[in-house]
Amino acid sequence: MVKIGKHKTDIQIAICGSAGDGTIAAGDILKQAMAKAGYNVIAFDIYPPEIRGFGKCVARARITSEQVYSLKSESDALVSLNDSHAIAHVQEVGRYGAVIYEDTPISDIAEGAHISSHLAPAHLPYGVAFREISERVTGSARSRNIVAVGYLAGLYDMPVEAFHHVITQKFATKSQALADSVLDGFNAGYHIGANTFHLHFDRIGTSRGKGKQSDLVMMSGNAAVARGCMDAEIDAFFGYPITPATTIMETLAHEMPKRGARMLQTEDEISAIAATIGAGYAGARAATATSGPGLALMSEMMGLGVMAEVPIVAFISQRGGPSTGLPTKTEQSDLNLAVFGVAGDGQRIILAPTNVEGCYKCAGKAFEMAEKYQTPVVVLLDLYLSNRYEAVELPKKNPFAKNCSKPITQKTNQSSYKRFKLTNDGISPRAIPGDEACMHTVTGLEHDEQGRPSDHPVMHQTMSEKRHKKLLGAVNHRGITISKRFGDKRKVDVGILGWGSTFGEILEAMIEARKEGIRCSAMKVVMLSPLPLKPINAFFDDCGEVLVPELNYEAQFASLIVGATGRQVHRLNRVTGSPMRVREILAEIRRLADKAQMIAAQ
Amino acid sequence: MNVREPLYLEDKLEEIERSGKLSYRSQKLPTWCPGCGYFSIEEGVSKAMTRLALDQTNTVCVSGIGCASRFPFFMNTYGFHSLHGRALPVATGIKVANDDLTVIVVGGDGDAFAIGGAHIPHAARRNVDITYILFDNGIYGLTKGQTSPTSIVGFKTTTTPYCNIDQPLNPLMMLLSYGASWVAQAYAGEPHHLTRMIEAAIAHRGFSYLHVLSPCVTFDKTSNTYQNLNMKVRPLPDDHDASDFSAAMTEAQNNARPQIGVYFTSQRPTLGDGLNDVAKRAATIA
Fold it and tell me: Which one of A36, A226, B69, B266 has the fewest CB atoms closer than 10 angstroms to its CB?
């Protein structure tokens, strides 16, 4: 439901069409413009794996003056650019929500094929001749998505200048004539929208203006990752295209050469991580990015990175699996592969941000950690996080430290330098090619302190301990949230433990539950390996029942937690390809709260 | 009767030390079998590095997995003993990170043409400025004698106990067609020629590929033995024009009677040149 009142705004708009209708582009203009105007925006698009064809596209944007953490289960308005796809989404429109569609004469189409015959009584119908307006104003029907955006902006009294700015910026690189034509289309739609009779829902209220408006940047998770890489002064990136990670590589391909940094598209994922390890060994800040299938190919190399103690960063954006799975649908089912997927005992650092701002932080901090602990660092994202847009405020001062390598303090000569020297914290002083008198060979074989192959039983025991011990410091790494608790303090009936993109839905559900009087709190775990066991155990101590919602079938995070703590949890697993629904989590919280109350009463 | 002067070990050692090539050798002795052709390759690399006066501090030897790939441990340079088949992409990463390093990649026929086959065309077409020395013994030695992509038809190994039925690859033709900017062949039984080839390969700016025929004395008693290769190997014709790609392809066709020498050489921008060019273009736009 839209909140009534001049100063609060919380509207969610869904635009639905067929691939090629400009659905995603329309949603893009909407979210960029509203973020520009100072609103908090969370947006997430769903699209098919085909470029054209007749697959369904849905662009959703939640525009709000409040602090929110996820999309809502219900939308307040649905714009249909293709009725055959949009009909299925009518049910997500709440009471007194608007359904906006192409005004086609009913006589022209088969019974039931028009969206207007699927509306609920409490839906507000708006039929607009987008196609006709687009043809009349711009000379082609191709801008009907823009006309629809204009109409929407007019209907809700959205700030028109922000739209003009975004449209001009978006199309100016192509041609001025095109930009003008698109602006005409937008204005025509806006004019009609603004003059449509509507009493029923509130207009857009004032923005909250988090910080200064100009500091808010609308950004996807993948764009935030790329920005984090740039701010951490990445030197080299190697990648191979794969949905949904490709946009990280595309953004970096654009940005890195401007600073003289080097980006290369390799022949496959194996060579991508191999080259990343080569560059990391040679002293560069190097990274790669892929999805689950690519990570599977990278497993062997990940083990080499662990054994040879090479600092690299790998961004993994998960999608539906196993195998090729669901390339354009979201899932959190690569946790096991990320945490455990190497031959032998190959622990490395795994970070899983929960929102777009976290993507930026984890990306930059991953380079610090890789260097400091001399290990591969995996940053685990998923399609929902990679592709979802949030208005974020980036820190004004670059938060990432440069060169975190343990320096060589003692003077060495040819035979005295030990690349894998045993130290108290397990971290050895690191030399790179070009350093005087520190020549050594690194290897995937077990080795002695100088790096020479050794299968001596004591050596393997000692070196295994070194490689695991050195990671323990990471749970106290500065300047990054490793885990965090939200909601009620001290003893609660229900605790929700979450990771990754699902944590937004978890927070929303927890806030709702607290409004209902349930004592509950939620905890996010950002570092999945090594696990921050102290705060996790403290959380278990405080919670009557613990719920772990995640988007996979095998309850991978829940199993990880149970294995590490020996505690009991309640699992909530969904693999629908879409983000978890807030109301599903809420229902579980209610059920567990009742259970906790009953146990307490006994 | 002609009585030879006795050879004293001390004199020989002094001579070796004076040559300077030992500074390129590590303290660790090679773990190859006595008689292995790889010794002469290592000797050749040390000598070539001495002649070129390469700075060990700025030299990296990269390898995959296999008998040949143990090479970096025996050199006194920086080294990366990586994974089976993956030496080339690792070396590419090293060069992208630091173009000033001299990178020598070594590997065997299985490492290169079986598991690592997908990486060779891309390192070659990008003209990564590295030297790739391929130790071809036509067999898997480290796993104790299995057939390889360059084993001849009819070869009996532990995994082909009746006979090998697969056609061997022709690495020289492959590398030529991949666009390698320098392609040559040498033989471990011709150490002086081998050394000259290694020196030229390292000196070449761009991707240089040196194919070295080298007997496995332990697991191959019938096919690529010194005896057989001594009879078969001959030099490229005197009038071979190494700038002529078609001539190189023609000469490379004869797998059965291998010819040693430089097949093809050309100059074109390296990967590093290309990346610098991209940075320049980006800077003008930004």
Answer: B266
